[in-house]
User: What shape does this take?
Amino acid sequence: MNITNISAIKGLEEVSRYSTANPLSPQTNVEKSQGFQALLDDAMGLITETNDYSNKAEEEKIKFATGESDNLHDLMIAQQKATVSLQYTAAVKNTVVEAYKTIMNMQF
Assistant: This one.
């Protein structure tokens, strides 16, 4: 067994188990807005990805139905990806809506 180079884990020296940032320090409005903007961008990316998977599954279904493709395996994979992606997107949406309702029901 010859282990001569372990350079792949050299970058891990800088990684700390504990964050140096104080979690109790208040965030600025810029940090909050960037965080919320990033959240919205991720959500839109998730929706776009789900739509792309659905379109790909539809294309594979049409190709299979018209005889352009006889590969049932690719059709099933495309449909499964679209289904899983849609279920994940719906679960994220439901979690966000539930969190919103919880926040709205809080009394100050």
In short: Residues 50 and 86 are 6 Å apart (CA to CA).
